[in-house]
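Field: COMPLEX_INPUT
Field: COMPONENT_COUNT = two
Field: RESIDUE_TOTAL = 798
Field: MODE = joint
Values follow.
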Amino acid sequence: MPPSFDEMRISGSEVRDHYRTYESWLKAQPQELMRDRRDEAEMIFRRVGITFAVYGAKDEDGAGTERLIPFDLIPRVIPSHEWTEMEKGLRQRVTALNRFLHDVYHDQEILKAGLVPAEQVLKNAQYRPEMQGVNVPGGVYSHISGVDIVRAANPDGSGTYYVLEDNLRVPSGVSYMLEDRKMMMRLFPELFAAHRVAPVAHYPDLLLETLRAVAPAGVVDPTVIVLTPGMYNSAYFEHAFLAQQMGVELVEGQDLFVRDDHVYMRTTQGPKRVDVIYRRVDDDFLDPQVFRPDSTLGCAGMLGVYRSGNITLANAIGTGVADDKSIYPYVPKMVEFYLGEKPILNNVPTYMCRDAKDLSYVLAHLGELVVKEVHGAGGYGMLVGPASTKAEIEEFRAHLVANPSNYIAQPTLSLSTCPTFVESGIAPRHIDLRPFVLSGTEVQMVPGGLTRVALKEGSLVVNSSQGGGTKDTWVLED
Amino acid sequence: MLSRTADHLFWMSRYMERAENTARMLNVNYETSLLPQSAEATEQGWRGLLSISELTPAYLQRYSGFNGRDVMDFMVRDDSNPSSILACLRAARENARAVRGALTTEVWETQNQTWLEFNRLLREGALARDPGSLFEWVKFRSHLSRGVTVGTMLMDDSLHFIRIGTFLERGDNTARLLDVKFHALAGEFFGAGNGKETHEVDFYHWSAILRSVSGFEIYRKVYRNVIRPELVAELLILRPDMPRSLAACINEVVTNLQLVANQQSGETLRRAGRLQADLQYGRIDEILATGLHAYLTQFLARVGDLGGGISRDFLVPETA
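Field: COMPLEX_OUTPUT
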């Protein structure tokens, strides 16, 4: 495996062009100052209440289960020519994924053409037969898509971006992208005077525009709401933040009811009709009459209203069939099939363990590969071969053999590193990138996205539930 | 606005107001306990404080005597006591967190900061070191919370429900304070107590009540008179210009209720208006003639009834 791609430096002494101004500034900063700034950031985040809930954790000083996501002071910088290319690729990829979802729930041309195995789609737990034949406004299913991108080193030392996975259900993290920027501007205003950093603060505006654009036909001034599972959900801060920034109601399932084939919310002035629901609740919990009967997070009868076309759900029900890890390998084919274009963004080569040949390769190379559960998320249920002990590998092997179709495997990509301010000073840590792509009447995004960083030395897992932190992401305008 | 949002806002401000009033009562009791007085009188003071909030049985499950340290501990930092300042500040903050999107950033940060700081102060032993400043601190955080609310919130239903919560709670708390304090002095007040010594005790007692509602200077300004119990009662019950009086609180409740009125709130508004009229046209000699305790008991029942009506009309979700 070649050494990781360093985002800031070409070699020990040579700094990449787009980092040059920043690096000379950083060199001049005393460690104590950086430490003070970091403490200041932590204090502000705590006061503002930018926290996430850790499932099953308890705190002694009354703060409940709320934790801060560690914020790193050193930004991840992307030069504008790289971003321009990436943006094109994201636009293309998300458009193809939306076309695929429409196809799957209508004529299934891509299955008939034999490009994606039909049983892989139709027998997938994320496939929702209830959505078959349902028309959604504009044919858009995934209105908010989070596409995880990493950069891996090539043998010649250059780097290549790869899409690691598509998140088309309820991708989260955008509030950290916005808060990290706000924090950086507060802590280091002089850096923004010295750099032309593309702004991101208009994201909530784009989001609202997107949501209004996909209202049910004939609704002139749609009522948009954000549906949250409630304040004990790990992403509650983000739900509240986005609702507030858009100026719409933040609603829980208990606030909603269905009457005469419409969804209403209970207000102090009586029932009010709802048109567009940006839901941050999983499919399974949306409607206890159709999905999980024990769910109190959704609203009974919602699916019926949805099928009648009287509400829009963002994202649509059943998008999971397109971001499933077993479907991921087919995305480049989707781009060619629906758009007649060459895919701009690379996929990571993927072994599907359901395939006997792939499985035997995977079993023989467990120590080198990353193996993931097809439906896993949040860094749970995966094996990072090179970072695991013999015992861990053997334990995982047993799971894999017992249920091979539940797993895929990929070569262990050496994620690129970015200098990060840790206890011992400034040191390289692995990072990824999640841009947020909005699809309404058009596909839009703000430059950059959320950069997540694995704070543990050598770790490749960037998820906040696994000790990951975040960085501000700068797209530098030329 | 969402009924659930209104509900959280209403309770957020109620709990904040309750924390403030608890701090006020504790502070006055604490200061009084520093005056030269008999052990019985001191104990009587702490006992009375618990009975204001109907907490004596709960207290006795955890403590045996009525000494200042235990009562303050119970009322300030005891998690098992839902009316302790700690519990009230937590509830205020939890309610705010549930609807932080409906609050301005400043309002939310004030609530959150109050909660975080209060925990820090307790950890650092502020209660044992200097109870007086801790109580002052709570009072000022409540002032800040009210000020930032009025100073930054859009003047829509959100603000009106916050105001209703504040004044309903305050009216309730002032009535409880009066009831217990007058009750404790029933003997002297309705009896003969003409000796100089009694007069002195009275002075400290009544002025303590006044100070607990920031009313001592107001009393002097309004009456230009020595402290007389019936005037204290009049000030705290009937004066519409005294910001913590029952009349002032109910006036605010009525004003804000009118602003949020909906199709089903007519009866609640009528009852609130009637209570307002009773206070507006009431006279202190009539109230004292019929008995202050009976009057306040009835007032508390009517405030409770108003709270129930508001929940029914606006807050508790109707069934679909």
